[in-house]
């Protein structure tokens, strides 16, 4: 793979990293199977693209995308906490509604940003950063998101959200309103997803109504890959694992495409990656148990041989 392809994988992994962190918040921290992600990602892209085309500031477009994602997460949370809709169904309902909302915002199925000013065109205009501008920008955004999210989850509010996902009954017995904590967690997660959508739209130069399809699977794959390689023993490692997993996932996708896989098979590849990532801990455990069993058998044979030698000498 050439340097440009590696750089592209790194750029995409960093920009999609916020989406992966959003999936981590809902699925891992809050323990909520939220399918709003596919719609929230497109929502962030649609809001950012339309605002830029109307003459708005590209950075302010990112902020608006973030707020729109938070609103989508709140809608999902209200369906669950207010109307007692099942978690899985509440996310599906919001995702379906967002498809029409996104079309309303965009006015058409695709918006082009190729001839307008974005944060990435400005980054490439910086002297000396024509090639590495998007990478530097992606690193800065990823660092800010990781730092803010880490500090938030260390606060009393953030720890209450984490406790709600760990043991909802216990934290409710301590007087914490778990419904509010779910709203906060869902709003935070989908805000990060929409933030990523706004960044990706500006990076790719377009926003498309179907660009969010499969984002939830890609996010889960990245989270699982990162946790398998980096670990999740501490909060900081778990957050970093999501970013690392996002970069590795995008690198694998780029590598497979370079080997000749049709782009139409990417969803199938994503599903296979998720299956392998899910099976990896079990395979590692079984291989570990097998190695321990073989070692025990060897030790038993060695002990038996030593016992036989001792009896013969005696």
UniProtKB/TrEMBL annotation:
Keywords in alphabetical order: Cell membrane, Membrane, Transmembrane, Transmembrane helix
GO function terms (MF aspect): transmembrane transporter activity
Protein's membrane topology: Multi-pass membrane protein
Location in the cell: Cell membrane
Pfam family name, one: BPD_transp_2
InterPro entries with a match to the protein in the record: ABC_transp_permease
Transmembrane stretches, start-end: 12-30, 59-79, 86-105, 132-153, 180-203, 209-231, 238-260, 266-283
GO cellular component: plasma membrane
Superkingdom of this protein's organism: Bacteria
Protein name (Swiss-Prot/TrEMBL): ABC transporter permease
Protein source organism: Desulfofundulus thermobenzoicus
């Amino acid at each position: 793979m050439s340097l440009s392809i590696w750089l592209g994988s790194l750029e995409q992994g960093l920009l999609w990293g916020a989406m992966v962190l959003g999936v981590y918040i809902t699925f891992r921290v809050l323990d909520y199977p939220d399918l709003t992600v596919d719609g929230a990602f497109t929502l962030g892209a649609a809001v950012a693209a339309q605002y830029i085309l109307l003459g708005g500031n590209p950075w302010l477009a990112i902020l608006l995308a973030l707020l729109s994602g938070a609103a989508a997460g709140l809608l999902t949370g209200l369906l669950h906490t207010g109307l007692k809709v099942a978690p899985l169904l509440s996310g599906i309902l919001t995702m379906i509604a967002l498809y029409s909302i996104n079309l309303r915002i965009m006015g058409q199925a695709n918006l082009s940003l190729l001839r307008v000013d974005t944060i990435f065109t400005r980054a490439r205009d910086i002297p000396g950063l024509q090639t590495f501008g998007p990478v530097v920008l992606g690193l800065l955004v990823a660092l800010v998101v990781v730092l803010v999210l880490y500090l938030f989850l260390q606060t009393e509010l953030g720890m209450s959200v984490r406790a709600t996902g760990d043991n909802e009954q216990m934290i409710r017995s301590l007087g914490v309103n778990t419904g509010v904590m779910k709203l906060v967690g869902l709003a935070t997660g989908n805000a990060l997803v929409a933030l990523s959508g706004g960044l990706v739209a500006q990076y790719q130069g377009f926003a498309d109504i179907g660009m969010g399809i499969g984002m939830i699977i890609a996010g889960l794959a990245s989270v699982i890959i990162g946790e398998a390689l980096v670990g999740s023993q501490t909060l900081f490692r778990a957050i970093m694992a999501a970013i690392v997993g996002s970069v590795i996932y995008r690198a694998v996708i780029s590598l497979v495409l370079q080997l000749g896989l049709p782009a139409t098979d990417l969803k199938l590849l994503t599903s296979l990656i998720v299956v392998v990532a899910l099976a990896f801990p079990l395979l590692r455990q079984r291989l570990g148990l097998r190695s321990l069993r073989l070692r025990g058998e060897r030790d038993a044979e060695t002990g038996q041989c030593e016992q036989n030698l001792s009896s013969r000498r005696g």
